[in-house]
DNA sequence: GGGAGCGATGTAAGCGCTTACACCCCGTCA
DNA sequence: TGACGGGGTGTAAGCGCTTACATCGCTCCC
């Protein structure tokens, strides 16, 4: 065998830890080295330089078939697993995108995440997930995330955007999902993707009005979430269009328990309505069930509609009338935009808005079950 | 200003790209550098060495308050975002764990993921998510994941385990969630965490039998998923314990549409039963709804029970009798174990099994709504 | 008054990759 | 027959951090 030049001539001998006799000597031939193999050990074993090993592994440079085989064998024999961090450092890309969402209850976030992950994976990017709820210091968590990704997608409702830009310092491309432009203060490197809200909410509200209902209540708090306030705007618009006076929203958090409370306020007469337009399906479902359990007829006595089209909305009777959002596509789009941006594309000047679809079932008064 | 020694004396001048005039000169004072600030620029601006900057940022070494302030100011002024990859390389830890699950439909995976992410975040670790379904080459995806994490948690049903160990080459700690020991071939660095299945399934089945039912069917395919086959084992055990003959499982995939098909086979008389023990709630719910829509009485004519206790199971009437699993805890536990293992702990020799809880509602024949 | 001791900081050696560039060896062609 | 070209490989310079170790002033105490 030709004298292989030391691959890393100056490399000091590993600081010899006063090794106990029980530690197997990594250099023992045949023994699996306790610590991971590196590109150096692979190169040495294959009798080539580290550059060649890298070329084989990256697969984007010409290497003779014989050499390739030698390298692959060495990789296999040594159980070589490359160190991603070293590659990232060298190529100056993390090859990962961050996704920040509040939590993962209900199908909305899951769908979004699946879309995002799927597209990211296709693009060869890993996904690092950050759940904002329950974190005491979200900005610093996002800051830490920024440390390890090439771009970040954030849900508008994640309560991050205001502080986000500061945390990121405009350093990385950011895509805000289902947020409003008001979330983008400096806004240079931030862009928006969202599902349509105002129009479909107006449409849904108009539909309920068409059923002859006149005292509609909007249930859910528009304040914190931009998409909810857009939906309320649609609710208002539908009223205004017919010269009606929209009621103030019934501001409650999006919790099943809150829905029950709202239903109780209706049952007690505190709240009066013949139709409820709810900010999401969870709310709508818990209200409807409570009303029914108390003997009220839905939609006979009171109509109830929701938003999101969760699975349960198909199963309850009457079926819940609601609005389906292209959530999966939203996730795909976010990943896609991030990729473009990392590739050097300029941020889109205007938000991308995906269309939604009103799903009519029985709870609004339609004849469908 | 004292002559600051060049921080990186030998550092060659950046290979001057034949820069077009349109590119702003990064060195222009006041201008935000186009490329990210590094620890060097921060050190230079603060008039200290990079070591000091690092110390301030890591916060675990004594630095005088004055110096700390100078550094923090520089960090702020330059919008410095550290490069995680460089840190990872230096500290020789990715500070991230991988989680491999099939997909994200239903609350099961979401809960698991939330538990995992929560605990991982507490431990200062990022979570890289990999959805196995839809990936054409899962082993290579897992291999790539292994490149960037210190340990991996995999769902037993993710169809990964058989190939997983090979992909990882025993290089990283692995925790298999809700898998069976048979998933662990070489098994050296792999350990298992799971929810109890056999006993609670036996208990649930016995409960249904106690309602006076005698012709029970098990719906769902035990073959691919270890947890499902354990549940079927419990079904069998309950029968055997009373000298009854358990029916062969009705092997169908876990899809709503399949549930509808099963219901149709019952309605047509092809399948005969007075109680259905379903592998999960999705199946149970779609079957029950279909039967009801066709005029059958549940539980009068036929009882239906599920597994998982999804949200819908609380909303349907009758409520779905089911089994609640400590899914969140499973996620927490997986992250916890991974952390221990990365810390040097030995793999647990025996699987950790968390208890589950039978939730009785009306669909089994109980008086509860 | 001159160490010893210590807090604060700087120096420099890596961490394990990627890749520009140099080089070598042959086959070709003028 | 020698210049040329090009495929295949090696050399070495980073990528941006962390951290062991060296250094530098001080204060403190004998």
From TrEMBL, chains A, B:
It comes from the Bacteria. Pfam families: LacI, Peripla_BP_3. Residues 37-91 form the HTH lacI-type domain. Keywords: DNA-binding, Repressor, Transcription, Transcription regulation. CDD domains: HTH_LacI, PBP1_LacI_sugar_binding-like. The keyword Transmembrane does not apply. This is LacI family transcriptional regulator. It comes from Humibacillus xanthopallidus. The lineage of its organism: Bacteria, Bacillati, Actinomycetota, Actinomycetes, Micrococcales.
């Amino acid at each position: 065998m030709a004298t292989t030049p030391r691959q890393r001539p100056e490399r000091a001998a590993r600081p010899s830890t006063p090794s106990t006799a029980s530690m197997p000597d990594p250099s023992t031939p045949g023994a699996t080295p306790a610590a991971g193999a590196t590109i150096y050990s692979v190169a040495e074993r294959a009798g080539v330089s580290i550059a060649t090993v890298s070329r084989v592994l990256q697969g984007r440079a010409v290497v003779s078939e014989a050499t390739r085989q030698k390298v692959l064998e060495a990789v296999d024999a040594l159980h070589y697993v490359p160190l991603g961090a070293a590659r990232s450092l060298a190529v100056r890309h993390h090859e990962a995108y961050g996704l920040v969402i509040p939590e993962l209850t209900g199908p909305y976030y899951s769908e979004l995440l699946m879309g995002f992950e799927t597209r990211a994976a296709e693009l060869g990017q890993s996904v690092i997930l950050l759940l904002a709820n329950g974190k005491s210091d979200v900005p610093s968590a996002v800051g830490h995330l920024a440390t390890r990704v090439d771009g970040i997608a954030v849900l508008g409702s994640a309560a991050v955007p205001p502080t986000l830009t500061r945390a990121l310092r405009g350093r990385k491309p950011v895509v805000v999902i289902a947020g409003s432009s008001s979330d983008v203060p400096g806004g240079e490197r931030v862009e928006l993707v969202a599902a349509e809200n105002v129009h479909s909410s107006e449409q849904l509200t108009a539909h309920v009005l068409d059923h002859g209902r006149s005292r509609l209540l909007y249930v859910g708090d528009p304040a914190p979430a931009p998409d909810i306030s857009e939906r309320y705007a649609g609710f208002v618009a539908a009223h205004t269009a017919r010269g009606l006076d929209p009621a103030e929203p019934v501001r409650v958090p999006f919790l099943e328990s809150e829905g029950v409370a709202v239903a109780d306020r209706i049952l007690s007469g505190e709240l009066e309505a013949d139709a409820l337009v709810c900010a999401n399906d969870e709310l709508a479902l818990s209200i409807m069930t409570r009303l029914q359990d108390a003997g009220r007829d839905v939609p006979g006595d009171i109509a109830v509609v929701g938003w999101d089209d969760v699975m349960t909305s198909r199963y309850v009777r009457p079926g819940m009338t609601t609005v389906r959002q292209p959530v999966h596509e939203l996730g795909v789009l976010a990943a896609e935009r991030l990729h473009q941006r990392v590739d050097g594309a300029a941020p889109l000047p205007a938000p991308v808005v995906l269309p939604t679809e009103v799903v009519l079932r029985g709870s609004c008064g339609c004849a469908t079950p």
